[in-house]
Amino acid sequence: MKIRNDIEENKATEIEAYGELTPVIKEKIEWFKDQKLGIIFHWGLYSEAGIVESWQLSKEDAWARKKGAWREDLETLRNDYWQLSEVFNPEKFAPKVWADLAKKSGFNYMLFTSKHHDGFNMYDTNFSNYKITSKHSKFHKNPQADILKYVNQAFRESGLSVGTYYSKADWHSPYYWEPNSDPIGRYASYDPIDKPDVWQKFNQFVENQLLEVVSNYGPIDILWLDGGWVNRDNHEFLKMDQIVSKLRNIKPDLLVVDRTIGGEFENYVTPERKIPDQPPLKAWETNIPIAKNWGYVPNDVYKSFEEILETFIKVVSLGGNLILGVGPKPDGTLPEEAVSVIEKLGKWLERYGDAIYGSRPVTDVKLAGYYLTKKDNRMFIFYESKNAAEAISISQLSEISSVSLIGSPERVQISDGTIILPQIEEPFGCIEILIDRQGE
């Protein structure tokens, strides 16, 4: 079910198999499958306004203004929004605090928004003055003004892998929304076929920025490209062969995720706000915000720990990763509601993480109502606390050496191919089944 009209979907990419891949990218994709849990930060001027990211700027995206336009008319809204860089001043920005929280809570990788569709750069780009380090930015004299640099640095120092979110669209660029134009919506204000020279300037602008992000803010493992209409609709096609070739000259194992586009530059699939009915053929990552919105909105509605946990277990049992979205507040701190969910997830993973990280889905055993993963000769069965004391049949399995409750010395008794699920205190528990393969 579509929740917001910004969700870009292309179900065809979920059934698309890989074409030819280089050995280094094949290896990196297997690495990605092992990570299981990531965090993505949507942060920019929209947190200052407290609105649905930068979507209110788009004329056609009236859904973003329906429950509270930031300004009464669109022209005033745009003019005032562009000036937010002179107000945005996240003096409590502490990337080490973010990184320590993620590390302690079992996250393995992080994505950060270098630039959303509004075109405001959260790093010191050389190709736009609309940036956090501009002399017009209130934050530019802060020692950590180059925000992307310090976020990436903090997470790498904490041992987490780093990726960068980048919107291919740029509503502030004169090569995308031309000055004095009246763009219909999220698309370029002109048809690239009619103005190939302008579009070429935009293509070069995107290439320059992506080279900058990978060169100056690396090493990064993932380049996560948003703005799914670019490279798909209205003749808006970038020279991706050329761009990615140059990026991989810098970082040969860089995963490029041109979301919803398919083909060789969508190295893994990113279903948004949903768990696919059937696991995609490519590696994949369900991306879900902890709150209703990706960016910070005052009085937002946050998902419960129990909901996030069940989503996580289900995604992993299907072979995917989960990346959770957090919107930092305009002062640079993380919302307490999001921190609470993250910390609870971390405590759960301290006990059950062995059944999560590096696991793969179980395809040859079916147990209705339960989630299964496997690693080598071990199979894991996740179950809800309400199912404790139930008897389940594992007669489908042969040569069982032992059954135990994860994180506990307690052995689980087997009788005639049936086990009784132990009592647990958490919303979900997990038992480990050791398969004796000596006879193989």
Automatic annotation (TrEMBL):
Residues 28-354 form the Glycoside hydrolase family 29 N-terminal domain. Keywords: Glycosidase, Hydrolase, Signal. Its EC number is 3.2.1.51. InterPro entries: FUC_metazoa-typ, GH, Glyco_hydro_29, Glyco_hydro_29_N. This is alpha-L-fucosidase. PANTHER family: ALPHA-L-FUCOSIDASE, ALPHA-L-FUCOSIDASE-RELATED. It comes from Enterococcus gallinarum. Belongs to the glycosyl hydrolase 29 family. GO terms for molecular function: hydrolase activity, hydrolyzing O-glycosyl compounds. Pfam families: Alpha_L_fucos (PF01120). Alpha-L-fucosidase is responsible for hydrolyzing the alpha-1,6-linked fucose joined to the reducing-end N-acetylglucosamine of the carbohydrate moieties of glycoproteins.
